[in-house]
Amino acid sequence: MKTTGDAGTGKERLTLDEGAVYTLCVQSPDRFEHTITAEGPVKVSGEGDATKLRSFSDSDTLKVGREAVIRLHSRLETGPALVTFQGKNIIDYRIIHLIESFNPIPLKVAHRHFPNFRVAA
């Protein structure tokens, strides 16, 4: 992997065949040629995963007035699901038809979602 720009960031695409907890380790020389090492766990969900419903978002930071899409990935049979948007209290709820695979849930971020909220299914 090569880093780009002054920030020293880089990307590497991995293909992992099985669901498991992996430890990823990265090493790189700094500007003084000292080896810098970092490592951390990455959990990959697989067919044997006990969690059958997971949520995904492109960002954990949203702006009021913008559109967002939350994706629920289901390994459950097709059926109804209750999705709630919660702040201090329940802000909103929807009953959706859940299919096995990805289920997009569009959201227009409003002032009632500020300063933070949770989505539960």
Report on this model:
The chain is extended and about 55 Å long. It is mainly beta. β5 and β6 (90-98) form a beta hairpin. Helix content is 0%, strand content 50%. It contains no helices and 8 strands. The protein has 2 domains: 16-49, no CATH class; 53-120. The protein has a 3-stranded antiparallel β-sheet, with no helix packed on it. Strands 6-5-8 form a 3-stranded antiparallel β-sheet, with no helix packed on it.
Secondary structure layout plus pairing:
Layout (H helix, E strand, L loop, with lengths): L19 E10 L5 E10 L8 E5 L9 E8 L4 E8 L3 E9 L2 E8 L9 E3 L1
Antiparallel strand pairs: 1-2, 3-4, 4-7, 5-6, 5-8
Number of strands: 8
Radius of gyration: 19 Å
What is the string of SSEs from the N terminus onward? EEEEEEEE
Instruction: Report the sheet with the most strands, covering strand number, pairing sense and barrel closure.
Output: 3 strands, antiparallel
Fraction of residues in H or I helices: under 10%
The class by helix and strand makeup works out as mainly beta
Low-confidence stretches: none
Strand order, largest beta sheet: 3-4-7
Could you give a quick summary of the protein structure above?
By secondary structure, the chain is an all-beta fold. It has no helices and eight strands. It is extended, with a radius of gyration of 19 Å.
